[in-house]
Amino acid sequence: MGFPDSSLVERPSAAGGSTPDGEGQAPIPVKLVIAGGFGAGKTTLVGAVSEIPPLTTEEEMTVVSEGVDDLTGLERKTTTTVALDFGRITISEQIVLYLFGAPGQDRFWPLWNDLALGAAGAVVLVDTRKLEDGFASIDFFERRDIPFVVAVNVFDDAYHYEPEELREALTIPPEVPVVMCDARERERAKETLLTLVRRAIEKIPST
Ligand SMILES: Nc1nc2c(ncn2[C@@H]2O[C@H](COP(=O)(O)OP(=O)(O)O)[C@@H](O)[C@H]2O)c(=O)[nH]1
Ligand SMILES: [Mg+2]
Predict the structure, then answer these.
(1) 186 C-alpha vs ligand 1 centroid, how far in Å?
(2) Tens digit of each residue's pLDDT (9 = 90 or more) over 20-75
(3) Which of 87, 155, 174, 191 is the most buried (most CB within 10 A)?
(4) 123: nearest Cα among 102, 150, 156, 146
(5) Are strands 95-101 and 148-153 parallel, antiparallel or unpaired?
(6) What structural domains and CATH numbers belong to the chain?
(7) Which of 44, 71, 185 for mutating ligand 1's site (highest number of atoms within 8 Å of CB)?
């Protein structure tokens, strides 16, 4: 059987097919959102794990965004995502993850509702130098009851927090995993996605 169409339409369930182990079936597409503040490492993470060349709409930051996008502490950042990042990673014969990196700037908030539609879960990337930027994303997924994990992207020049300190500072509920991550490292980024998938599966009501 060929690869499923790219419509990302949720299919009933893996167990609905004829072979219980999913053998011979096309993998189930699972949509995940990569969220977080501006410069938290979303584009980097999608690029690090994607098995297809990530589709990204990075644009050179122009003078137009000067004074609009807050570059404090991000002096080396010269590109910005104007729409979204898109990547794909196959985690097993049964599951293929489609990653949608959300644009971090406040002015793109209206897009987030569309991005979250049909999402099985979200990674909220947090830059510890700009902790407060994580609140809006955490709040967004909490309100919609979308499973999420908080991934702390540890930048070289950032103060090192313990996960529990961050949980308290960001008032992250106990059931939400907090993981340390380096968005540039494929294996760490992949482990973050697997933590999210496990969390999303846990949240599926057992009937
Ligand atoms: N030191 C360090 N730099 C990172 C890490 N993740 C991303 N960066 C850098 O931080 C900048 C912002 O990352 P980017 O992915 O564009 O952020 P986005 O706005 O969330 O998409 C880029 O220059 C990255 O190379 C990290 O884990 N450690
Ligand atoms: Mg980006």
Answers:
(1) 13
(2) 555 678 899 999 999 998 889 999 999 999 998 877 766 555 555 555 566 555 65
(3) 87
(4) 150
(5) unpaired
(6) 25-203 (3.40.50.300)
(7) 44
